[in-house]
Design brief:
Blueprint (H helix, E strand, L loop, with lengths): L8 E3 L12 H17 L2 E5 L5 H15 L3 H5 L11 E3 L16 E6 L7 H4 L17 H29 L8 H4 L3 E9 L14 E4 L5 E6 L5 E5 L4 E4 L7 E5 L1 H6 L9 E3 L7 E10 L4 E2 L17 E2 H38 L1
Parallel strand pairs: 1-2
Antiparallel strand pairs: 2-10, 3-4, 4-5, 5-12, 6-11, 7-10, 7-12, 8-9, 8-11, 13-14
């Protein structure tokens, strides 16, 4: 069941008229809006975020040009070529929701350019290494520029959002700076083929119902809908309609853990029955791999205890990745086993 509800739209205004306004009341109004969203569903949209519309269009064009490549061009930069989560991910590689089929999406992972001489690469830190770039693209230089320009802008915006989040928790504005020093962030290009109108939503999904692994996610949508957020109060799904020049922001599991579950990492999914191809660019902020996430003092009420033990960013996020991809592989193994059993059975009958 769906309700005609909306995810709040906040004018963040990453300039002197919004969050960075000299007007204390105006800045506080933005912080208050963010706090209310984080306490409720952990989802909101922002305009005035400072990422130019031209950069948004350029990166979305890059996304579409990549997925328009022949399959062999995409397979040439498969993420299976490395162990640091960079490159192409084929359809049905991941399974975030138990009880469904592997997901009807394909992706392409990009991160900061980490050379093989960097300590993160040498020590095999979380999602850290050089990018794979698709040589099959005729406009590869434009693709690289659009990708990394957007990546840099999204990372800068994430820092600003974390400053706002700190103030929303009655913390110093720079509270998350150490977390963001040497931060790992992963950008993912996603393509969702349209599902048949009569497809079983309980089994076939673009992405199954899940929560994100890291601290915060910044999502750029194209014009095709499909994203749905579970409203915890009513247990109904809210359609997040794409809003021109807006980014969808949501909290991840690290932030929920950090705030002792005061702030919510909320369940969401994608079901694309639009009849059109859906494209999106989520930007996942994990943080410094060595940073220890422990309960934030202002998120503990008097007499309340922390619900979680301290954990490093790398340990928490790596475990979540392993679970979701392992679930998909188990599903595929079962399908393969059944396919093998049938001919064996036929052979026995024939004998």
């Amino acid at each position: 069941m769906k309700m005609a509800m909306q995810i709040p739209l906040i004018d963040f205004s990453a300039d002197r008229s919004g969050f960075y306004s000299d007007d204390v009341d105006r800045k506080q109004a933005v912080v208050d809006q963010i706090r209310a969203c984080c306490l409720h569903n952990g989802f909101f949209q922002i305009t005035g975020h400072g990422i130019a519309l031209g950069k948004q269009k350029a990166v979305m064009n890059a996304v579409k040009s990549f997925f328009a490549l022949p399959q062999e061009g995409k397979d040439a930069v498969s993420k299976l070529n490395n162990t640091w989560n960079r490159g192409y991910e084929m359809l049905r590689s991941q399974m975030l929701e138990e009880g469904t089929e592997p997901e009807l999406k394909e992706g392409f992972y990009i991160g900061d350019e980490i050379p093989e001489t960097h300590p993160y690469f040498i020590n095999k830190r979380l999602n850290s290494g050089p990018n794979q770039w698709p040589d099959a693209l005729p406009d590869l230089d434009e693709f690289k520029t659009a990708s990394m320009d957007y990546y840099s802008s999204a990372l800068a915006l994430a820092r600003s959002l974390l400053r706002a989040l700190a103030l929303s928790m009655d913390l110093p504005e720079d509270y998350f700076e150490k977390f963001m020093t040497g931060a790992v962030a992963t950008m993912r290009y996603l393509h969702y083929p349209s599902q048949a109108p009569d497809a079983d939503e309980k089994l076939s999904r673009g992405i199954g119902a899940h929560t994100d692994f890291g601290a915060i996610t910044l999502l750029l949508q194209d014009t095709v809908d499909g994203l749905q957020v579970l409203d915890s109060a009513t247990q109904t799904w809210i359609d997040v309609e794409p809003t021109p020049d807006a980014l969808v922001i949501n909290l991840g599991n690290l932030m929920q853990r950090w705030t002792n579950e005061r702030y919510r990492s909320n369940v969401h999914r994608v079901i694309n029955k639009s009849g059109l191809e859906r494209y999106s660019v989520p930007f996942f902020v994990s943080g410094n791999p060595d940073y220890v996430v422990d309960c934030i003092p202002t998120c503990l009420s008097e007499g309340e205890s922390a619900k979680f033990e301290p954990v490093t960013v790398e340990a928490a996020v790596s475990a979540a990745y392993a679970e979701s991809y392992g679930r998909a592989q188990l599903f595929k193994n079962k399908i393969t086993e059944k396919a093998v059993e049938i001919p064996i059975l036929k052979a026995v009958v024939a004998a």
